[in-house]
Design goal:
heterodimer; A: alpha/beta; 23 strands; 34% strand; globular; B: alpha/beta; Rossmann fold; six-stranded mixed sheet; four-stranded antiparallel sheet; 8 helices; 12 strands; 34% helix
Chain lengths: 478, 263
């Protein structure tokens, strides 16, 4: 690797700082008492406690998955604290009452909340550690009947919706980390778009892990009723810590007839230092159910952070003519590991899915695409197009593609394309011969490589993603 | 054109260069003055493309001896991007493809970077669009070129035209064309040659690296150099190229003058 690339790759993590806010932390460890404590703290109805306990019982019988192409020391689930909440001084009536320290944190992250909300027309449901602190634009959304709030609030105010849909796409025993999440989730976002409503603005959540050693178990549930549509943005950053932090979120999306849900993520959790020490373990279950006819679920993700990423945003295409999409950019550097991809399960007739995956590996990192396309016997006329491209930077990084294609209906058309390229001396020489610096060259090559995915992102997110990638890869090509 | 008021643009003395420990350039001497067009001819493996890349600063080669002055400055101590900004241009034999990056975006970045470093004004996207379209007429290029990804899916001729377009935009003092004629049909060759001829003037200079004489039918050189085993073994006027064409490179071996120069 050239010195320029080295420098680019080795820029320190910008968002490495800890906000001092008094936290209310549960004792470390996991057992039924802790789960009851969480449920009591959150004043939950009995059925939700049962949901949690059932998940916990499932989890006890399960083993941590081993099939993914990542390596990490065994996680001690008893050394994690499963509940931590900023101590509420009083009920917050407006943004002005939010802890100024917290607001400063967001400023440092480049998320001036009210400005962003006002200027960009984005409602920000801020998750800080595990409890929602403030929700903006709620009233405006309420005018058209949209519910956008923390999942805790939704449990209190709309229990019938939560009871109906929670766990309906990702069952409590779906997988090891989803079971854990179902048992101990503390907060997350809830969004309900009623019949016929097009959400007038993009909805956005900024996540931030704070208290050292507190695992984060977010739970997100988004429902779009018949003919409804919504764009949802999720962005994450985390402060620098040396001990690994587990993040095991579950996201469930449900689209009824003719509904449309577009879910975009830019993920920049702390990735560990240049020697692979520290960083977030990001083990996430994201799944959308395209339940109704002509419904659409679209996932777009830009994964740049975390020491380990284990994530497969998936679509179950149950409704006839329903559409599933997955657009992904995964960047790894230093000793980061990513095993990410999607699952497209075709059940309905004439269902269509598109997969565009771009993996970029620099340093000593490893990136794997793992994707399943399953055409079931009922999926008459189903179509899938998959494109998986990998780009290697330097000669110490690895890229792998694991496509699983299962076709059980002869009328299906399934296409898969894959490519691997490398940013090498000759590419950089071409740019430098035109007077262009290596940094700019890498940035331009990468952005070109990721264009098909970036153009799926909302404007301001695309800008953020472009900057983030350049920042992540500065100094890494040689 | 040879002009008595010309100044020296490039002065190469006893230049030696290796790749992975193997010496490729074994003592090259060459002086290029403003207003001149030089052709460097030779068989594959004679070192002519290496010479072009070494002048442009490709990092795969190690300089093991000699010196290169470019407009009076030590060229060899500059990184490749600074050589480019100082006015040295290399038209590549195999231009790389940059998927997803619109040609206009790449051209504008290159143009504005070089302009800024030369202390000149940048052009905004609209101004640049007018400017580049004007230059494209020179090469009879379809404006569609601007929106396509850099060199991706371009034919051989389109890639070479794109190289000459960059040359026209960056207004180099010294242009080195590495096998620009290879892979071109006769029409494309004429268009490219026409572009090069229009860019060449009494203040700049051109080095054509080529295997064949046919490019020199359209771009007439003031000097022709024959390269062999990492050295310039023969230098002459434009008629030397024709001589080579009819007699072949073996003739050079038989008639190699002791001092490397024939009249």
């Amino acid at each position: 690797m050239s010195a320029v690339l080295q420098n680019l790759v080795n820029q320190p993590y910008k968002h490495g700082f800890v906000t001092e806010i008094e936290s209310d932390i549960a004792p470390k460890g996991l057992n039924e008492d802790i789960i009851r404590l969480i449920s009591t703290k959150k004043n939950e109805p009995e059925w939700l406690l049962s949901f949690r306990l059932k998940a916990y019982q499932k989890w006890l019988t399960m083993n941590e998955p081993k099939w993914q192409n990542v390596h990490y020391p065994k996680i001690d689930f008893q050394s994690i604290s499963y509940y931590s909440a900023p101590k509420p001084k009083q009920k917050l009536a407006s943004m002005d009452e939010v802890d100024p320290e917290l607001l400063r944190t967001f400023e440092k992250l480049g998320v001036p909340m009210h400005e962003r909300a006002a200027l960009a027309g984005v409602a920000v449901d801020v998750i800080f550690d595990s409890v929602s602190v403030a929700t903006t634009y709620k009233e405006k959304l309420a005018e058209v009947g949209i519910i956008f709030c923390s999942i805790s609030e939704a449990v209190q105010n709309h229990p019938e919706l939560i009871q109906k849909y929670l766990g309906s796409v990702v069952p409590v025993g779906d997988n090891y980390f989803a079971a854990l999440n179902s048992a101990v989730f503390t907060d997350g976002s809830f969004c309900f778009i009623p019949k016929g409503v097009k959400c007038p603005m993009d909805l956005s959540t900024y996540f931030r892990i704070n208290t050292e050693g507190s695992g984060q178990f977010e739970r997100t549930l988004i429902i779009a009723e018949e003919g409804a549509s919504v764009c949802y943005l999720e962005g994450c950053t985390a402060p620098r810590f040396d001990t690994n932090q587990l993040h095991a979120a579950v996201v469930e999306l449900i689209a009824l007839d003719n509904a449309d849900i577009k879910y975009s993520t830019v993920q920049n959790w702390y990735a560990g230092d240049e020697n692979g020490v520290g960083g977030i373990y990001n083990f996430v279950t994201k799944r959308g159910l395209a339940k109704g006819v002509n419904s659409r679920i679209s996932w777009t993700q830009v994964e740049t952070g975390s020491a380990i990423t284990w994530k497969y945003p998936s679509c179950i295409l149950r409704g006839d003519n329903s559409v599933g999409e997955f657009y992904s950019v995964a960047v790894t550097n230093n000793y980061q590991q990513a095993d990410t991809g999607t699952k497209m399960i075709h059940l309905g007739k004439n269902t269509r899915s598109t997969i565009v995956s771009k993996g970029i590996s620099a340093g000593h990192s490893n990136s794997s695409y793992r994707g399943l396309v399953r055409i079931t016997p009922t999926a008459e006329g189903a179509r899938n197009y998959s494109q998986c491209d990998s780009m290697l930077i330097g000669d110490q990084s690895g890229a792998h593609t694991f496509p699983y294609i299962q076709v059980h209906n002869n009328s299906a058309i399934v296409e898969h394309e894959a490519s691997t390229s490398k940013i090498g001396e000759d590419q950089l020489f071409y740019f430098s011969q035109r007077g262009i610096d290596a940094e700019e060259a890498v940035s331009m090559i990468i952005n070109g490589f990721c264009k098909d995915v970036f153009q799926q992102l909302p404007m301001e997110f695309a800008v953020e993603a472009t900057k983030l990638l350049s920042f992540k890869l500065e100094g890494s090509v040689g | 054109m040879i002009d008595k008021n010309s100044r020296t643009i490039l002065s190469v003395q006893d230049l030696r260069a290796s790749i992975n420990g193997t010496e490729i350039l074994k003592g090259i001497d060459l002086t290029v003055k403003s207003g001149e067009i030089h052709a460097i001819m030779g068989l594959n493996g004679s070192g002519k493309s290496t010479f072009a890349k070494v002048l442009a600063g490709h990092s795969a080669y190690q300089i093991t001896g000699g010196s290169v002055q470019f407009e009076g400055n030590n060229l060899l101590e500059l990184p490749p991007e600074e050589r480019a900004r100082a006015g040295l241009f290399l038209a590549f034999q195999y231009p790389i493809e940059i998927p997803g990056v619109a040609n206009t975006q790449f051209l504008r970045l290159a143009y504005n970077t070089v302009q800024t470093k030369r202390g000149k004004e940048e052009l905004d996207p609209l101004e640049f669009d007018d400017f580049v379209r004007e230059k494209m007429k020179l090469l009879e290029m379809n404006p569609d070129f601007l929106d396509r990804s850099v060199n991706e899916g371009f034919s051989g001729g389109e890639k070479k035209r794109n190289e000459i377009l960059q040359m026209a935009l960056l207004e180099p003092t010294l242009s080195i064309l590495d096998e620009t004629d290879s892979g071109l049909d006769i029409d494309a060759l004429k268009t490219v040659a026409n572009g090069v001829n229009q860019i060449a003037n009494k203040n700049n200079a051109t080095i054509l690296v080529t295997h064949y004489q046919r490019l020199l039918d359209y771009i007439v050189p003031d000097f022709v150099h024959v390269m062999q085993a990492g050295r310039i073994v023969m230098t002459g006027g434009k008629e030397l190229a024709l001589e080579l064409e009819t007699r072949g490179y073996d003739w050079v071996n038989a008639n190699k003058p002791v001092n490397g120069v024939i009249a």
